[in-house]
Amino acid sequence: MVQSKKQKYLFLTFCLLPTFLLFVIFTVYPMVNGIYLSLFDWSGMSANREFVGFENYIRMFNDEIIGKAIYNDYFFVVTKVIGIMILSLFFAVALTQLKVKEAPFYRVVFFFPNIMSVVVIGILWQFIYEPDIGLVNGFLTSVGLESWTRPWLGSMEWALPSLVVPAIWAGIGLFMLLLMGGIMNIPKSQYESAEIDGASEWQQFWKITVPLIWPQIKTSMIYIVITSLNGSFVLVQIMTNGGPGNETEVMGSYLYQKAFEDFQFGYGATIGVLILILSLVTVLIMQFILKREKVEY
Amino acid sequence: MTKFITGAAVRIPLIIWSILVVFPLIWMFVGAFKSNAEIFSSPWSMPETYNFGNFVSAWVDFSIGSSFLNTIFVTVLGTVLCLAFSIPTTYALERLRFKGSEVLFNVYLASMMIPAVLGWIPLFFLLMNMNLLDNLFALSAVYAISQVPFTIFILSSFMGSVPKELEEAAAVDGMSPYGVLFKIVTPMVKTGIITASILNAITFWNEYFMALILLQTESKNTLGVQMDLLSTNAQYESAWGALFAGLVIAVVPVIIFYAIFQRHIVKGMTEGAVKG
């Protein structure tokens, strides 16, 4: 190659520098600055920014709503991981191995909610739960279970579980596709030899399918946890705004409320750091629990 | 007989789930044509007459029209900018080995794990100080940068499979490295570019929170923010029909997009899983 060193460096700079600069300015700097801001008491006006050390963190430990928000976030995490994994694993197996002729149809339909915006999903489900015209109460009444009807999102005990349902509804398709990718990659010979040995379909599922797609299962679970801790609040914000009371408050919605509604930007940043720490710790713990001998085929 | 039973046992959950996905959407479409009174008196029935008044009301009175155009703007600009940022970087990281290329690649990947929420407050003040709040160009740029790591991740596996001989032959013929990148390599990774762009475009079209924070006047609002406003107003003005119509307007482009690119999306997702 006829190319001087100088030209090569010039080309590398052209390729890398503009993007990296923008990445540092709009992604890295805000994150680092978010941690720094958590040490200040700040109403957003640069004049009255007061360094308070770890005071925001101490306040956070004594904030009852934070406790509630953490509980609710993990309620989302646990129910979403269980609900999404069971359903998407069942659908993935059904649509790849159980010879369902209409599989392509289901694949397209089930993925559809994944491309809808959370705003649309939130508003639509708000309607579905609407006490007078909503589908849920309407359905219960029509099958004679009138006593079960209630204002779902306005009920102290039912609001949170009611929010989990659309979160699962909207999440299934993506993970179903991810797991299908893994299953389709398993060599047929694995199942053929198991069949000769007389293994039942149930045994084949547990002894072949699950171990061989474990990497995909693990990735999916970790991905659900990260997106849940960092994204569930959009649905909360749209459907209940954290209410009734603070019954459905999660960390993200509380951060938004504190920073952009109450103008306590320092405290908001502290909640952001809490989300970061809890995400990292949870993922580390999951990595440890989900560790398994790698299976080769 | 057992075959029939297992066949049914598999199909029943599949059918139930299809209904759970499709029925709310049909209900939403039907509601968009109903009057408020009809939505309340007979929420389950088909509309008596199909009137488009709700759509007009949503589009004009609730500014869904202008926010629709704003959303198209940020989606297209964000997707194009993201490619402009990501393609040269991916090429340099994947094909031109240099000291630190692996480190830089891992920095981009690692940033995907960090919650964006943490950066929102500083980002808001950064744009405020740069006088870029309430600016659709700035929002598009922020969108583009936010998807750069993901795009690099997708494109790098495609660039890895471009034969090196092609680049070398072009270089021997006297083509500059810029020419090699844009005229030889870029066309070769078209599939990767399409996959990444589809997923990015859907993300940008649906984004809500950054737009909520970074935009301020109603005329600049994107669909997500405007729909949320409409939803709040609809409850006071009981403009339920308009709200249903607004939802339909927000969803129809995605349905069309999905119908066209459905194969690519599904293929991209399942193949990505194989590699991951």
TrEMBL record, chain A:
Membrane topology designation: Multi-pass membrane protein
Record bears the keyword Cell membrane: yes
Residue ranges occupied by any ABC transmembrane type-1 domain in the UniProt entry: 70-286
Listed transmembrane segments: 9-32, 74-96, 108-128, 158-180, 221-240, 265-290
Primary localization class, coarse: membrane
Pfam families (alphabetical): BPD_transp_1
Coiled coil: none
Intracellular or extracellular location(s): Cell membrane
This protein's UniProt keywords: Cell membrane, Membrane, Transmembrane, Transmembrane helix, Transport
Similarity annotation: Belongs to the binding-protein-dependent transport system permease family.
Protein's name in the database: Sugar ABC transporter permease
Organism in which the protein naturally occurs: Jeotgalibacillus haloalkalitolerans
Automatic annotation (TrEMBL), chain B:
Residues annotated as domain ABC transmembrane type-1: 68-261
Keyword line: Cell membrane, Membrane, Transmembrane, Transmembrane helix, Transport
Domain of life of the source: Bacteria
Pfam families membership: BPD_transp_1
Lineage of origin: Bacteria, Bacillati, Bacillota, Bacilli, Bacillales
The species this protein was found in: Jeotgalibacillus haloalkalitolerans
Signal peptide as annotated in the record: none
Localisation per UniProt entry: Cell membrane
TM annotation in the entry: 12-33, 68-91, 103-125, 137-159, 180-205, 239-261
InterPro entries in alphabetical order: MetI-like, MetI-like_sf
Family from the record: Belongs to the binding-protein-dependent transport system permease family.
Official protein name in the record: Carbohydrate ABC transporter permease
Membrane topology: Multi-pass membrane protein
